[in-house]
Task: structure prediction
Amino acid sequence: MKHCPICDRTSDRFAFFGEICEVCAGKKLAEKLPNEVRVPLCRDCGRIRVAGVFVEPGKASMQRLLSGSMRRYRVKLLDADREAARVSVTEEGTGQAIEHEVKLLFERTLCDDDSRKRAGYYEAVVQFRGDGSKVERAAAALQRYVERNGGFVTKTEQKQHGVDVYVSYKRIVRAFLEARHIKSESSFKLQGEKGGRRLYRNTYFVTLGYTPRRPGAQGPEPS
Result:
């Protein structure tokens, strides 16, 4: 029979991990774990930052965040609210497992997308022109596509014969036009350089219902 050197519990009543009982082993494990975990929270979109990336809040993302804060252990999220999370923590090697509660400290910040949105950032302008109803439907479809694919529409401007849509990322605009088989004329303007790479702002001119040619179109466009 074993006697725990810390509390004198015996192995006929308690499981032992090495030379100490499960109760004392659990207390020692709890002392190694954080009591608080910081959770960066975007004040605009409500996403949380996990491993450097902003993602939608939920059980899976909170599980990843908590596991990242206790990397030496196997962590399973049991439940969580806006103040605390309860987890099951298993120590590698010994197999000792305990339930542990951590306080969640939400830190309000801005994700990259919302920071850019506030600054009026955009890489592309899509100029829809032509039949009024077709233009409105196309502009709405573009906005839905952009939001579904991780971008944002900075603003829209009503024009005499259509609408201009300012879009965060030109790669999303190109994908939208290709997916819908929409023909466009493109032009581009150098906006500066970053890390030795030239940065361009692209304009895509799309006609719907009639086909006037827009003067000044250029090609091919830069990436």
